[in-house]
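Anyone? Bumping this.
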Amino acid sequence: MLIFKLMSLLKGYVVIRLKSANYEKILNLLQRKGIRMWDIEKNEQGIKLKMSYEDYVKYEEIIKETKLETVNKKGFAFKLGKLKVRKGFVAGLFILLVSLYVLSSLVWNVQVIGTNNATAVNIVKILKENNITMPVSHSSLKPKKIETMLYNNFDKFKFVEVYIEGSKLIIFVKEKEPEKAEIKSNEPSSIISNKNAIINKVIAKSGQPVVKEGDVVYEGQTLVMGMVKSKTSEEFMMVPSEGTIYGKTYYNFEMKENKLQDFEIATNKSKNVYFLQISGNSIKIVGDKDPFKNYNYREITVKIPIISKLTDIALIKGTYYEQIIKTVEIDVNTAKNKMQVNLYDDLVKRCSDDAKVLNSSLNFSEDDNYYYLRAQIEVIEDIGEKVRLTMPEVNKDETKTE
Amino acid sequence: MGKFNNIRSKLADDLEIPNNAMTDNFDLRMHGNKKVIIENHLGISNYENDEVGIKTVENNILIKGSKFKIEEINSYKVIIKGNIDEILFLKKE
C-alpha cells in the first residue's frame, strides 16, 4: 500500500467530496467502471475519497454527472505543471544542473605529494609541455601515461602514482634515496684511532704516520696524517692515507652467576588442541588452551585434501607439552664455563674482526649466593679508522685585506 | 451468476483447486479485528462510521464496529479498516 501511495503521489491524485445522500450507489458505479478509489472516509460533510488523476481525466464526464466536488489535486505531476509558468526558475535550475555536471567532470588543479616545491614545479612544467593544462576533463587524463612520462623525465623517482580524486589530479612521488658517501681511494684522508690503546705496530702505505710503537693514543687521535710535505717545494699536499695500525687494548669484565637456578624440565604429559583455520582466523574445535601452568607449545598445520586447495581452510594441531620448574644448585665448573662463554661472546662484539687475544687474567670467587668472575683481557687489534680530509674554508674578508 | 455455485464449489474441493477460481463465492480475510479484506464482492450496500454492508453473490456481509474507513475499493476487492466488533452473513432475500 505504501508503494502504491508513493506511486500515486508521483503520478498525481485527486481528492473528491461526495455530498449526495445515496453515496453507496455512486461508489458502486465508479468501482464498476474500473476506477480505483482509496482512503474513503465519512464525515459530517459527506464522503471524501481519493482517485488517480489518470482515472479522473478518463471518467471526467461521469464524475460531472454524479456531481462530485473536487477538493484538491495533489502529487508531483501537478507541481511540475506549476513549473510551466515559472520559466525563469526552470531555466535557472537547468543551468545549475548542467554547470554542476560540467564543473564536477573537470580536473581543476594538480597536487604533488612526496617531493619538494622545485620538483613539483618541474612536474607541472612537464605536464604543460605535454599539453596537460588545467582545467582538463577526467576522460582525457590517462594516469598510466602520465606515470610513464614522469618516469622518463625524472631519473630520481623511485615510485610514481597518478590518480584523480574529485577535481584534483594527485601525483604521488617517492624519490630515490641519495647513495651513501663512501671515501674513494683517491680522496685525501687521515687515519684516526677508534679506541684508547698502546701502539703495537704501524704499517703506513701512504700518508704521514704521526705515532710510533709504544705511544699511548686516545680515541679520536690522528694516527696517520693525510698532509704530506712536497719533496720539490715547501708546500703541503693532501693525500689519501692507507695503512694498518695495530694497538694493544685492554678490556675489563665483571660477571656474576646465581648459585640456585630454575630449570624447566619436561614431563611426559601432553595435550592436543585442534583449530580450524579459515582465511587466517583460527576457530578452536576440540581441546583446551593453556592446559598446564608451564608448557612448551608446538603447532602443525594439516592441509585438508581438495578443500585446502580450493579454499583457504586448514586444520591446525597444537600440542602442549607440560614442563615443571625445578630449582637446582649449579656447581663451580658449570658456572665458570657459562661465565667464560658469556665473556668471550661479549668480547667478540666489542673487538674488531682481526683481533688477537694476547693475554688474559681470569679471577673466580664466590659467596653464599653467587659465583663471580673478574677478568682483564689484553688484545691486539686494528684501531685505525679512515676519515675524509676537507680543505679549511678561507675567510674571504681576510684575503681581501691581504 | 450464482448458478450451480454449490456444484462448482464441490468440484473445486474434489479437484483440490482454489475454490474462488471456480465459484462465485467471496473470499474474506481478517487481520486481527482491525482490517478485513473481501474479494469477489458486488459493491457496497451501506457505509456508515459504525457499519459497513458489502454485497456478494449469495450473501450480504454486514460488518459492525466503529471508526470504519474504506482503505481501498475496486471492482475486485474492498479493504475496510476500523475496530471490528462483529461480522454478520445475511442471506439475500
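Late reply, but here is one note on the structure posted above: Helices of chain B lie at 5-15, 19-22.
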